[in-house]
Amino acid sequence: MRSMFPIGRRSFRPCLFGIAIGLAANSTLRADDFRTWSDASGKFKIEAKFVAVEDEKAILLNKEGKRLAIPLAKLSEKDRGYLEAKMGESPFEVIGDATKTKTPSNTPTASSTPKNSGATGSSPDKNASTAPTKPKELEVDYQSAAPQTVLVGSWSVKPDLFDAPAPKFKPFELPPSKIDREAITRVSSNLKAQRMVVSYSPNDPFKKERNGSTRLVVVDLTTGKVVGNTLGSGRWEAMAIHDDGETIVVSNKTEGTPLGQLGTVKVAGSKLTAVDLWSPYKTLAKEDKEKDVTFAEFANNGKLVTVCQNGNVVVWNFETKEPISRFDYHGACQPSLSPNRKHLGFSGGDVMGIFDVDAGEILGVKAAPQMNFWLKSAFSPSGKRFAAATMAKLMVWEVDSGEVLFEGSFDGIPLAHGLQFPNEDYMLLSNDYLVELKSRIKLWQFIGTNYMTHFGSTPVFGVNNGGGMRFMPITLPTPDAEKMLETALKQPNLFVWRKGVDVRIDVDGVPSQFQAEVSKALNAQAQRMNCQVSPSAAITLKASVSGPKAEAVSYFFGGSFVLQQYQSTLQIVYGGSPIWSGTATNTPGAVSRGTKEEMQKQIDDAGQKPNISYFAATALPEFLQRPEPNATGGRNKQTIGVSRVTATGLQTDK
Predict the structure, then answer these.
(1) How many domains does the chain have?
(2) Measured between alpha carbons, how far is 539 from 578 in angstroms, rounded to an integer?
(3) How far apart are CA 590 and CA 557, in angstroms?
């Protein structure tokens, strides 16, 4: 039956994951007496009594015995308030069950769930209470834990080594969507639980009132089967899945609601139970957007690590929601847990550091110039290496020493769109470019992927397939890529920078009193590469120094000081544009402990001149590929090889 109500402006208070709490998806709440209902404009009214809420619609029964379905968004404010009160003012409400739609045979159905569990087709118990259970609303204060201080200084890190074989699992299918414009919002996995959770929400730019629903799908990766599939109202993203494989932390992304709220839910088959609601950073004296939770992952021993947009890292006792330890760093940067979940690697605010989640202490912090915005990070499969990338710069460190293994960029690749370590010596950048760290070769491109994630160190490519999505684990590098890399290293025309090329030295950007010293250092660099120095060479080694600029620097156990900071930059330039660059400052890695005045004297001495030794000590890349002009999107011919990702696997372009 067509609704008699016109579309009105949506102002219904969004629900935290409106989901079945022990109720059948199509069951009824306790029936009401007849009352007058009206739409948002007040022009249309009807006498009816309330029956249920299904799929974001109020189901009413008029005096003629006909059932009417009215979208919640079209109801008057008074009627929406009535429904909120009817639901016990819980942010959870029953609207339906994803199993109500046609799903694959491996999706749980009513026959696999207990009576009244929320599965479509179950018969509600007429004597049972039908009011939804209200989740616990918790008050937490992250500031009750003493903060650690992020200070550049000593490094005492023993890698959190992971020597188990990479987990093996087969490709699997996600159920097709039956909701218009529904798309994946987040994928989270748990290596110990061997499970993955996927959250979906519609994204309709023209009818935003349709965007207020969430579907959760849980997959058992050992069998490839869907073990949970449920639908609810409100826009929530699945941030993390617990070691038990059923408990999920979701984050509130509902339009018009304060950011920063988390919820805990349990998914079992088609039944979803609300546990609690809490706002980790409610006491943070910042705007709501700064309190938004951007990272949440389960560590060991029942701990949950969260990070908000402002950069506040907190380790929680997940069961009690009590803060255990915390520290602050630059906010717009995603940290990552080591393979064994003992260490948290982070970068931002021109630093990189390792935090021991188990011990609750920072093990070391290193300077990381120009590593500030939109960072992604990742540990290598063994835990021996840690990487972070902005849109234009990648840095890779050896965890045991804190030494920089790689620093630079890859022309034409927006690095921070995605960052993975599929292998100790390779990185997957921007979700589709495979590069080898030693040679700096842009080896392979993968096109046709609709969604990209990972399970442990294994990249997982998602491809649309018949209305659903097929996820495929792919071991990288592929045998084809390894063979072509071996061949490419023997092709001199592939690289504009390699041993034996002619090179020009440019030190015009260095203060005159240091130019001779820097020129000597660059000539020595060229000699190590067997390069001939020539003023007409196509490749230029270009050095520059900027500063000084007063900057605050801090040290473990020493406090903060003011340094006159210089920045030293070395570039390899081809065709008028840099194809590699590295930077360093004159900030001392450590100072001798003493009085405040003695330590400031050491800082002042370091601030007298730039870091000239950097130009002699930095490790230049062995190879740099010829940049491809105007390379944008799709197959941009920057790589040696390319593969299209399809639902049946990789199709390699020969």
Answers:
(1) 3
(2) 10
(3) 11
| In a shared domain, residues 326 and 395 | yes
Over 70: is that where the pLDDT of 182 sits?
A: yes
Rounded Cα distance, 528 and 548, in Å: 31
Q: Are residues 265 and 357 in the same domain?
A: yes
Q: Are 158 and 88 found together in one domain?
A: no
Tokens of 423: 């292998």
Residue 467 CB: number of other CB atoms within 10 A? 11
607 and 505 inside one domain: yes
pLDDT of residue 21: 28
Please check whether residue 306 lies inside any domain of the structure: yes
Q: Residue 87: which domain range?
A: 1-95
C-alpha 414/C-alpha 409 separation (Å) is 9
Give residue 106's pLDDT. 27
Quickly list H helices, 498-587.
515-528
Are residue 315 and residue 378 in the same domain, yes or no?
Answer: yes
**Per-residue pLDDT at 377:** 95
Q: What is the mean pLDDT of residues 223-240?
A: 90
**Residue 621: closest CA among 436, 432, 423:** 436
Assign residue 357 the CATH number of its domain.
2.130.10.10
**pLDDT number for residue 631:** 45
CATH assignment of the domain containing 534: 3.40.50
Question: Which segments of 254-305 does DSSP mark as H helices, in order?
Answer: 288-291
pLDDT averaged over every residue in the chain: 81
Closest CA to 344 of 301, 306, 373: 306
Q: What is the DSSP string of 440-464?
A: TEEEEEEE--SEEEEETTEEEEEEE
pLDDT tens-digit profile of 285-315? 888 889 999 999 999 999 999 999 989 999 9
Instruction: Enumerate the β-bridge partners of residue 237.
Output: 251
Looking at residue 88, its pLDDT comes to 40
CB 361 within 8 A of CB 337: no
Token couple for 545? 């120094």
């009627």: which residue's tokens?
Answer: 79
Return the higher-pLDDT residue of 488 and 87.
488
Residue 86 sits in a domain whose CATH number is: 2.30.30.700
